[in-house]
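Readers outside the structure-tokenisation community will struggle with the description of the input data as it stands. I therefore recommend that a typical entry be quoted early in the introduction. An entry of this sort, consisting of the sequence and the corresponding backbone structure tokens, reads as follows:
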Amino acid sequence: MQLGWIDFSKQERNKVLNVLHLLDEPGAVDELGVGPIRDAFADYFFPGTSTVQTRAKYFLIVPYVLKEAGSGMYGSDLNTILRKIDSEERRCRDLLTLAGTDGVIGSLVPHSWVVRTPSKIYWNGIKKLGIFRAADLSVKEYIRQSIIQRTLKLAKRYGNRDKEAEENEKDDADAGDLTSFQFWSLGDTYQKDWRDNLTIELLPKEAAYLKNQIITSQRDSLFAFILKKNISPDKYDSFGALSAGLKGMISPELEHMMKLADDFNNLVAMMMTRYNLIVSQGRNKSAADYWNTFSQDMKRRSKVELKDIFNELNIKNINLLTFLKLVQEAFAVGDIGKADELIMNREVKIKGQARAKTKRAGEYPEQSWIGYFMLDYRYGPAKRIIKDIVKAEVKEHV
């Protein structure tokens, strides 16, 4: 099926593109509102990642462009610089697609550009991993601060030309020099000719830098552990497989959190199976098969320490906790009618009567699975980043 619209304005175009993007975004459908737990676990295990990140190279491309923007290469006017950042990221898309389109942001719209640009997608991760050092700034605020910093440097240079220059410099040092703050921590990865022969693959020194940055900035995370121990991401195809495979190898804290995540996944899988049975009026074959298995040991599969999850992840959402506890209790005693009622009421509370799919049962393709089944806590995007790093490391030693 093809979709189209009349392009009245840039604002209208952006609205439509955002809606279309949601249709393709992995993990975007959160029918029962468990997203706060999913995202908190993901941030704990794989900090700096997001579901829309594609390749590790953007953790360097975006800083390269923004470093140049902050240095004055793109001018001194805020709006001009922001437009130049956008055009440079689009230019990078064009350069990258010369070598292939796998994971290249914007490659599907070669004659247009994306609403979610690389800097929007990767900015939080770049800050989280310590690549950008002023973690409280947005891109726009960073550019504004860079302009101020350059202006102060220029004023200082002219101000220190008088006979008391040495005294002025001493006063600056004593007071704390606002012009000396370094926004970027890029090691020796940035080169002025970085666009030459640009590909989506990491250079060996970029891979070494990014690996070290993840390990040092997020040393207690699962992300760091996998990289530090050189664990092959191809060995485990799901979060559950990863959790089972690393048992006994990781710290007690990580093992405890992974068990909580696995237990929560069991509860989620049961809820979403019931959800799909309700929406399909019992006709979804996959859901029926899953439920045939789940129903044999509902009590065990529903067992998860919900209070521990909310406490460990610092989630303050009483309505979500109450819903999960009630569903858990219903499954534990085999009260499926009660569980279904809770699931339907939860969806209505989140979406409203008109948008709740459970209130329009039978209107959707019977064999299409709606929503998620098992949560991967961003293991998929993290796995892709890890594979990019490992591939560059192997290439260096060949």
Summary: Residues 252-279 form the longest helix (28 residues).
